[in-house]
Amino acid sequence: MTIQWLYRALEESRARGFLGPMPIETQIDHAAGFFQVWDDLNSVPPSQFLDLGSGGGLPGLVLFEHWAVPATFLDSMVKRTNFLQEVMDWDGVPGVARVINGRAEQLSRERVFDGQFPLVTARSFGPPAVTAECATRFLSVGGILIVSEPPTEGDVDRWNPSALGQLGLHSEGRIRKGAAFQIIRKTKATPDRFPREIGTPGKNPLF
């Protein structure tokens, strides 16, 4: 990719401390793995997607540029969502995206978000149990959660099938696109009790 606005956004994000020190090209290549995983499973782009814990804009900004479909960037840190909102006003941005500040446990229950997304992505959002519980209500039934995984193959058993089932989710396994990614599909509606109150998924994880 050689898109000026995207490189500018990621360089500024790194300058503000929202991204690590790795070269921008390396970070874009990692983010591209998310759309490569989706493209292996689907013949068309998602109608929209949500980037959970968007932080400094990865992978969300890369996916937004690649697909140019409606995007929602969600993060609980005001300074990061303020930055992403700045970026959305720059020349060259490929469409309109929502930037939302708040907690996933609460926002996923709002009608505008509940069950609305065929794709949710997560990069460094939190441990598997937290990521799964905070993501599940955003997903439509049949939708996919794609999570960036640690590089070592010894971490392949991080996702507990029984606990995922409680959330209406099913693991479809781990795949490599350079980096490693976990594919989790929503197979049924989210039970009313999930996600639990703000902070509970982290303090009392399901697995």
Tell me the radius of gyration: 16 Å
Order of helices and strands: HHEHEHEHEHEHEEH
Q: What's the total helix number?
A: 8
- Supply the number of structural domains: 1
Give a written overview of the molecule.
The longest helix is centred in the N-terminal third of the chain and has 18 residues, at 24-41. The protein has a seven-stranded mixed beta sheet with strand order 3-2-1-4-5-7-6, with helices on both faces. The radius of gyration is 16 Å and the shape is globular. Helix 2 crosses helix 3 (60-67). The protein has helices spanning 4-15, 24-41, 60-67, 78-88, 104-107, 128-136, 161-166, 200-203; strands at residues 49-52, 71-75, 97-101, 117-122, 139-149, 169-177, 179-186. It has one domain (4-203): Rossmann fold (3-Layer(aba) Sandwich). The protein is α/β, with parallel strands linked by helices and 207 residues long. It contains eight helices and seven strands.
Features:
single chain; 207 residues; alpha/beta; Rossmann fold; seven-stranded mixed beta sheet; 7 strands; 35% helix; globular
Overview in brief:
The chain is of the alpha/beta class and 207 residues long.
Chain-wise SSE layout:
Elements: H1 4-15, H2 24-41, E1 49-52, H3 60-67, E2 71-75, H4 78-88, E3 97-101, H5 104-107, E4 117-122, H6 128-136, E5 139-149, H7 161-166, E6 169-177, E7 179-186, H8 200-203
Parallel strand pairs: 1-2, 1-4, 2-3, 4-5
Antiparallel strand pairs: 5-7, 6-7
Helix pairs in contact: 2-3
